[in-house]
Amino acid sequence: MPDHRKALEAALATARATVATLEAALAEFDRNEGDPWLDLTAAAQAVPLRRETLARWAREGRLQAVEAERGRLMTRRSWLDAALASRPARVRLAEGEDGLAALVRAGQLKRAKHRTAQ
What we know:
Helix content: 40-55%
Oligomer: single chain
Distance between the termini: 87 Å
Strand content: 5-15%
Shape: elongated
Number of helices: 5
């Protein structure tokens, strides 16, 4: 009889873990209800980037994505927005300005402080 009790307790523990997993998935679904899933083609149409760029970003870890059926990559709109926000802004050169000076002006590169020998 004790073996049956152990088996039932193990089954009950498994069922409780399954319920907890399902409750977490339901809570995640509720949080993301207004955050649609996009395949990379739809994501590329929503932003000024090519699908291949988004695929590369997903491979590099710059864009959070999950693999759906047949290897298709899917992302959420909020994940896409986060990847775009972390992308460095492009810096346009002023006439006669070199690239390093433009990066310093844009705040993307700090000017080195030179030490004088004493």
